Amino acid sequence: MTPLLEIDDLVVDYVSADRTVRALDSAALTVSAGETIGIVGESGSGKSTLGAAIGGLLPGAARVVSGSVRVDGADVTTLRPKQLRALRREQLGFVFQEPIGSLDPTMRVGKQVELALRGWGTRADVLAHLERVKLTDPERVARCYPHQLSGGMAQRVAIAMAMAGRPEILVADEPTAALDSQVRDDVLDVIFALAAESGTTILWLSHDLPAVAKRCSRVVVMYGGGVVESGAASAVLAEPRHPYTKALVRAVPAAVADGERLTSIPGQPPVLTGSAPGCVFAPRCPDVLASCTEQRPPLVSAAGRDVLCHLAEQTVEAGR
Ligand SMILES: Nc1ncnc2c1ncn2[C@@H]1O[C@H](COP(=O)(O)OP(=O)(O)OP(=O)(O)O)[C@@H](O)[C@H]1O
Ligand SMILES: [Mg+2]
Asked: What pTM was estimated for this model as a whole?
């Protein structure tokens, strides 16, 4: 069966006059319908670039060097603009950190939701969609312009619009990072409830490991532009296998909230300019082996867990 989303060996550079940054370096991820996935990793690990690539939404400076991103079998990196717009409209939804960026400042909220319903929505449908995201007084909200709403309300409107077409995949890129801590949980509740109701697969890009463990079926850990570990969220975060995931889990105080930055792993995350020769985590890894700096790590899959690590290979072989 064709997977819902299949990202294969994806390499993306950001090119400017004075330098090239490799944001994704052989990133790979396969997602089945109905999964709720939390994508975590330090700032700069490539989460947003991966999320944007799914919708063909990479900024102008980005170059897809190689690899593919297939949604229902169609490779987003080679679609024509018209096909891409249709894919985004019919199959994908996006929610970003800044809700105001998703909304048109010159148009009343009700009109924008109506457009998100592609002209099929009656006034009652518009109000029902605003109610679904738990906005009290949808009549009033529908009459407002975006700047008249609080950040939390604006994000609920953006969620209502992203979910209006019942997308197959919702990419939520730190959707609560710009919100007050009291409303973060409520907004996440709305996203996860709506997705469950619509059968939408969630990719939630987040810094909030405890919340990912609580809400997601699977966690995907990114480092240096690639996926280094993935598996059942609660199991990976309780018993990480990749040395980077171990460091990440140790670095998270129980109360770290989405939007705050994780900084307490010794050393700096890499800014790559080309493909890393060995393991990209080797310079910071406490368990580094000689082979780690010379050879790319193998993908070791065992018991529902994928780990990209030389050490994991040795451990699995020793256990055989
Ligand atoms: N528009 C851009 N132009 C140039 N470089 C960029 C651009 N966007 C991202 N990068 C670089 O690409 C790499 C990956 O960045 P990305 O934003 O995908 O990471 P992230 O995991 O989403 O980080 P954060 O947690 O801070 O949101 C980083 O080195 C970043 O500096
Ligand atoms: Mg980001």
From this structure: 0.94
